[in-house]
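Re-run with default settings, no changes from the original entry. Doing this only to confirm the output is reproducible before filing.
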Amino acid sequence: MRWEDCSAALPHGPKCATLEGDRTVANVPFTYRLKIPDGYHIPPHVHPADGHLTVIAGTLNIGWGDKFDVKATKPMPAGSFIVIPKRSSPFLLDAGRDDRPVARHWALGGDLRQSCG
């Protein structure tokens, strides 16, 4: 697996490894793994299609809404799976422990609109 900086759709920090497809091409399925650094967070954003997120290692916290709110997140330990519905507004946060999250994400490529606030 080749790890590299993620695309500009994510704030700088995590590493991505593409397993299939191309995240930059609209309506093309893709799967990638994501290594998240300590204290990293992904601000609220909107997916153009349903996404499937599996936590492979560590703990990743997820919340929903237009504003990032640490207190509104719920932990997803290793083995957790969630479908992120089309047009929903998730935000993600490293749990801040020594167990750095690694996640696998499947979705359709296209416009990942950040609503950083």
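Residues 111-117 have pLDDT under 50 and may be disordered. The longest strand covers residues 29-35.
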